[in-house]
Structures are given as structure tokens and as C-alpha cells.
């Protein structure tokens, strides 16, 4: 069985549509010079009454279906919080608050309780307050799996700019080191392709099938997202000069790392990344998926990347590992464009991406 890229979300089309939205948003700024953002624009910094605030919005997408299939809803809050606060951290901001919008077909109190209990736990872990939100009943406009309450869930986060990497002491340059922070699973991206592969192999009850690791596939995909923001904020408050940061979400490493290098004439050479999760390798093998495409669809074991000077790499790794996050000095910046990934340790060979995806 071969599953081609068209079965998943096309990250290239997603980027083109995002560019359209960004272009129209830019027309609303009276003075474009006031629009400050980190390299890669994971979040924007908006001037308000003499000070600035960082702001971003995101959601958990079709991971909702995994929760519906498994009948468990108390972990999704970690995915929602991670998608928002880690974007803020990548923009050099300390997350402070978030609001959320839950669109449902109908109300079910036990499901709402589980969702909000998980959201509160995740907010405490991230060090943010839940400042408000809305639950909107939209009837048949919201659909999903099974007979329970169906919903979509999004949030907006606010943060306090801490100066780096929004206004770094210096720009990234050749020789700087990329620190890769390992992930706990698929996070909230790439589920369309994963579900397609599993449904073709196991049928409609694919979530009950067992992966080679011994876990049910539904359990594998439901694993909550790690929240990196407190660790990144700790780095920013230390002696580590954070030159740029990457939250590895839609588009994977090839779709996100080049964003922070745009216009600098730099290339990322990634030679020692954290290993891909075994289930990701299993999906590649059973579907005949090209590893080149897999890195565009999934995080492949790396959820966040920090760029630091070589002399600061050891301290940055220590800060992350003290917080229970496996870290690797994954590679360095060189002159050029795009990025390359050394996947030989996992049988993938050398993967090269010559342009931002």
C-alpha cells in the first residue's frame, strides 16, 4: 500500500493560504513599521498604550476525532495550550493569558467538564491564566465521530515580550547551533495523513488496532502535547542568548526552520536530531511513504528548536534537561538556503530541502 502526499494536508498550499491571510492583515496596520514579530512570525507583537503585547491564535484541528474515538477528553487542553503558548515562546514572549472558543453541535456536561479540567491543568503547567472564552452551540454545522458531543476548539494567547528572540542581540550566523527539544508524540499536526494510513490498513475501527509498540493506535495519537514555553522562557531569562526559535507544527522541520532564516542566506544542517517516534517509522513503512514527505507532515520526534551561539549550547541543553526534556545539539547553520536532515540512523538517508516548504 502506498499513501501519497495528497492523502494528508498539503503544507505548501497551507503556507500559500496563510500568506494570503497575512497580506490582508498587513493592510490593517496604520504604520507597518510598528508591526514587530519574531523571525517566522509565530506570533506578533502589538503596541498598545505605551507598551507591547504578543498575541497569537491556534487550535487543535482534527485531533478532536481521536478523543471522540477513545472517549477521553481531559488531555486535549494540553494540545490547545501548547499550540498557543509555544508559538508565543517562539516569538520571544512570556505567555500570560489565553481565551478559548469551543464550537459544539450540542452540549454535554461531562464532556465539557473533562475538556475544561484538562485546559485548567495545562494552563497551570504553562503558567498562564484562562481569561475567558465562549461555548457556542452550532447544531449540525459541527460534525464528528460517534454519538457524543462534537466540537472544534481554538484559543488566543497573550504574552509579554521579553526581548529575545523578538529583538535578538544579534542575528543568527554561520556556526550557530540548533538545539532540538524532543516531542512526546504527534502533537496536533499530521492527523489527516495518519488517519488515512490507519483506516486503509485496519478499517473503520483503526483506533483499536495495536501498534508494534504494544499501544493501541488511538492511544498513540491521543498522547498530549508537551508544553515547551516555560523551558524556553527559562532560557530567555538565563545567560543563554536565544537568537531564534522554532515551534515545529504544521509543515514539520522543513516547513518551519527555514522561516526563521529567511533573508539571512543561511542553511540548517541537522545531523543529530532526536529519533522519530517508533509509530511514525511504522506508519512510513506500512504506507510506503517517502521519509522526505513524512518530515513535512509530522514533527518526527522534534517539537521545538532553539538557535544559540555555540558557546551557549551546553547551558541551553542543561536548562531543558533539568525540566525533563530530552535535548540534542542537532546541527548548525551554514551559508546557503533550506535545510538538510541526516536520517541515516533510521534508514532514511540524507534528506535535502532546498527551499522553504
CATH architecture assignment name of the largest domain: Alpha-Beta Complex
Instruction: Tell me the overall shape.
Output: globular
Q: What count of helical segments does DSSP give?
A: 11
CATH superfamily of the largest domain: PurM-like C-terminal domain
Order of helices and strands: HEEEHHEHEEEHHHEHEHHEHEEE
Named CATH topology of the largest domain = Phosphoribosyl-aminoimidazole Synthetase, Chain A, domain 2
- CATH hierarchy, class of the largest domain: Alpha Beta
Tell me, rounded to a whole number, the average pLDDT: 91
Helix content: 25-40%
Largest sheet properties: 7 strands, mixed
**Low-confidence parts:** 1-6
Count of all domains: 2
Query: Rg to the nearest angstrom?
Result: 20 Å
What oligomeric state is this?
Answer: single chain
How much strand?
A: 15-25%
Compact summary:
The chain has helices at 11-26, 63-70, 76-90, 109-126, 191-202, 217-222, 229-236, 252-261, 278-287, 291-297, 313-322, and strands spanning 36-37, 44-48, 51-59, 93-104, 129-137, 151-161, 177-182, 244-247, 266-270, 302-308, 327-335, 339-342, 350-353. The chain is α+β, with helices and mostly antiparallel strands and 357 residues long. It is globular, with a radius of gyration of 20 Å.
Amino acid at each position: 500500500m502506498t499513501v501519497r502526499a495528497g492523502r494528508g494536508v498539503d503544507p505548501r498550499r497551507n503556507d500559500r493560504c496563510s500568506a494570503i491571510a497575512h497580506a490582508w492583515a498587513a493592510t490593517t496596520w496604520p504604520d507597518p513599521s510598528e508591526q514587530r514579530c519574531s523571525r517566522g512570525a509565530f506570533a506578533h507583537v502589538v503596541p498598545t498604550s505605551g507598551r507591547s503585547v504578543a498575541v497569537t491564535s491556534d487550535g487543535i484541528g482534527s485531533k478532536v476525532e481521536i478523543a471522540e474515538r477513545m472517549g477521553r477528553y481531559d488531555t486535549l487542553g494540553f494540545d490547545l495550550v501548547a499550540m498557543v503558548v509555544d508559538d508565543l515562546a517562539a516569538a520571544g514572549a512570556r505567555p500570560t493569558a489565553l481565551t478559548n472558543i469551543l464550537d459544539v453541535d450540542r452540549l454535554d456536561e461531562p464532556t465539557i467538564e473533562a475538556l475544561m479540567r484538562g485546559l485548567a491543568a495545562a494552563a497551570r503547567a504553562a503558567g498562564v491564566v484562562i481569561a475567558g472564552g465562549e461555548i457556542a452551540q452550532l447544531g449540525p454545522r459541527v460534525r464528528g465521530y460517534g454519538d457524543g458531543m462534537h466540537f472544534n476548539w481554538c484559543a488566543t494567547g497573550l504574552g509579554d515580550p521579553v526581548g529575545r528572540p523578538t529583538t535578538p542581540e544579534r542575528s543568527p550566523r554561520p556556526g550557530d547551533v540548533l538545539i532540538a527539544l524532543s516531542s512526546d508524540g504527534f502533537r496536533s499536526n499530521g492527523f489527516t495523513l495518519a488517519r488515512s494510513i490507519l483506516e486503509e490498513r485496519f478499517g473503520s475501527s483503526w483506533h483499536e488496532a495495536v501498534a508494534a509498540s504494544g499501544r493501541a493506535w488511538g492511544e498513540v495519537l491521543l498522547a498530549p502535547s508537551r508544553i515547551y514555553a516555560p523551558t524556553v522562557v527559562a532560557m530567555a531569562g538565563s545567560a543563554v542568548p536565544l537568537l531564534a526559535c522554532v515551534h515545529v507544527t504544521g509543515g514539520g522541520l522543513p516547513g518551519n526552520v527555514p522561516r526563521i532564516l529567511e533573508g539571512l542566506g543561511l542553511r540548517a544542517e541537522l545531523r543529530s536530531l532526536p529519533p522519530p517516534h517508533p509509530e511514525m517509522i511504522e506508519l512510513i513503512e506500512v504506507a510506503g511513504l517517502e521519509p522526505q514527505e513524512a518530515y513535512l507532515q509530522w514533527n518526527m520526534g522534534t517539537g521545538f528548536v532553539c538557535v544559540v551561539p555555540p558557546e551557549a549550547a551546553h547551558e541551553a541543553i542543561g536548562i531543558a534537561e533539568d525540566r525533563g526534556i530530552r535535548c540534542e545539539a542537532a546541527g548548525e547553520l551554514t551559508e546557503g538556503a533550506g535545510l538538510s536532515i541526516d536520517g541515516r540512523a533510521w534508514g532514511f538517508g540524507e534528506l535535502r530541502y532546498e527551499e522553504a516548504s
